[in-house]
Amino acid sequence: xxKNTIKFLRLHREGKKHFVKEVEVCAHxxxxxxxxxxxxxxxxxxxxxxxxxIVLVLAKKNGIPSxxxxxxxxxxxxxxxxxxxxxxxxxxxxxxxxxxxxxxVPHIHxxxxxxDGIRFCEAEQCRNGPLIVCAGIKDLKLMKTTLSGFEGFYxxxxxxxxxxxxxxxxxxxxxxxxxxxxKDFDFNCIWKKIRECILEAFAGPPDCGxxxxxxxxxxxxxxxxxxxxxxxxxxxEAVLNNTFYNVVDMKNLGLTNDKExxxxxxxxxxxxxxxLGRK
Length: 279
Known about the structure:
alpha+beta; Urate Oxidase; about 25% helix; globular; urate oxidase activity
């Protein structure tokens, strides 16, 4: 049991310069006895309102140096404070506020919400067990307008899809990875590096791009690049929900439409997923 959707903004001041972290936290516990379920005995139950208050107090006292560290702090607090807690899991996700820039100059106390993917993390621990930390990015919308195709696929009497050697590749990416034994990691630096790997693998070199023969191959390229460059990552999961675009037929309007006006296919949409780990 636990408390979901604990939302708050943590403001940190360094003189005139301000820093913000707006997060949503879910904290779940498992107790050493199920007596509250079986017997209605609540003597070991930590009220969910107390769980919420603990999260807020930890944010006040410790700040949020990284999402991962804050999730670890939550796990550590419940494990070290309550002997009746057998398991704790903390999920934290961040609202994507970025510092506002005016003429290239960073503003000291103004921010803009940029929907370029939502950062999240999970930390979980069983008593006398290892601390497990995962992190990720979701709702990351990506598109490239060429160098994508889909050819040579299996065909039978139900196949109507034509082969395409030049199409738009667009989708919403969910990516989650797990760390090995957590040491003194710079979680913020690692997360930024993985995000850069995702964008590089999706798009290819900025001057020429890179051909994608399928959504599946693109997902695998993302995972392979992350594993090759970020040694702390042990397993990485990626899900790409595809958005397809159809070219509008403008012949009746007396116009030739050379893939210049397209409409998205709202539903159904495709999806591909892959989990890749080190040996």
